[in-house]
Write a structure and sequence with these properties.
308 residues, alpha/beta, 7-stranded mixed beta sheet, two-stranded antiparallel ribbon, 9 strands, 15% strand, disordered N terminus
């Protein structure tokens, strides 16, 4: 169990035990409620957590101010509140499943056709996405479309919660690999070699200071696992924008596919590959920022502490 997940007695900490009990309570409630009521309940709860208890509220405001300095405070507050609601809707979709929520997926056929074309080379596909819309739902629907899917998950401090979230994702289809697994790259390359589809979230802050990229119009600290996997596997790279319009409608937009040229596996080529995907995804996110996830503690645009 990760450090911090145990109390003084060596067991699970009281905080994590409480979080797990609350999660189980709301999971049971959400599964019993009709979809519309479930959305309303979790939307209200999420807004209370941020508006009333200040959950990551100040940090979210600072990020929106940095990305949208030209917008009024009222506009930024509207984006923030709608993004909180979107986060709640994502949790409802994950708990109840897309079918129970009556989710309409606009663009799924276009995505499936793009994946079929990309898999013709039989080198696998790197499905490039960001934390926008419902990123978990994207993988679940793709897996249920008949494509072999692999997801990468970051281990959470609360191990019980982490196991429940992984179980929910795997119930939708596909395989989940831990981001901290020392054999992560080997497992992903093996999956791609079988012509599988690996979902890559590219807007994740690097573990330490290093190369920077442009994302959302600003300098971002990002790792480039995408470039490494593309270089080693020769897989097709398919960026996909995920969005949401209100509670029910998800819209997906496959962007221009790309791949590294044969033999072009150096660092400049890998950097250019990631930057091209970030450029396309940024343009879509900035058009619909209310569907983006602005709440990470370690935000990708924040500089590293020089002492770290």
């Amino acid at each position: 169990m990760p450090a911090g997940a145990r109390g003084r007695s060596g067991g699970v900490s009281g905080k994590h035990r409480t979080e797990y009990v609350l999660f189980c309570f709301f999971r049971g409630l959400i599964r019993r409620l009709p979809a519309g009521a479930a959305y309303r309940v979790l939307e209200m709860l999420a807004l209370v957590m941020q508006e009333g208890f200040g959950w990551r509220k100040q940090g979210t405001r600072e990020r929106l101010r940095e990305v949208f300095p030209e917008r009024s405070e009222e506009e930024r507050e509207g984006i923030r509140r709608e993004a909180v609601r979107n986060l709640a809707r994502n949790m409802v979709d994950l708990i109840k499943g897309p079918e129970s929520c009556g989710v309409q997926v606009e663009g799924a056929d276009a995505l499936f056709k793009a994946l079929e074309r990309a898999r013709e080379r039989e080198k696998g596909v790197l499905l490039v996405i960001a934390h926008s819309g419902n990123w978990d739902h994207a993988g679940i629907v793709t897996a249920r479309g008949g494509f072999p899917m692999c997801f990468i998950a970051r281990h959470q401090k609360n191990s019980r919660m982490y196991r429940e979230l992984i179980r929910a994702r795997e119930e939708g289809g596909g395989t989940v690999v831990d981001r901290d697994d020392p054999r992560l790259i080997r497992k992903l390359l093996a999956f791609l070699a079988e012509n599988g589809v690996v979902a890559i979230l590219v807007d994740i802050r690097a573990r330490k200071a290093g190369d920077t990229y442009r994302f959302l119009g600003r300098t971002a600290w990002l790792g480039n696992g995408l470039g490494l996997l593309a270089a080693k596997s020769g897989a097709e790279v398919l960026p996909v924008y995920l969005g949401r319009d209100g509670r029910r409608l998800h819209f997906w937009k496959p962007l221009s596919p790309r791949r590294l040229k044969s033999g072009a596996v150096g660092k400049p080529e890998r950097r250019a590959l990631l930057q091209s995907c970030l450029d396309d995804l940024s343009a879509e996110i900035l058009l619909r920022p209310e569907a983006y996830f602005w709440f990470n503690k370690r935000w990708v645009l924040e500089p590293f502490d020089e002492d770290v």
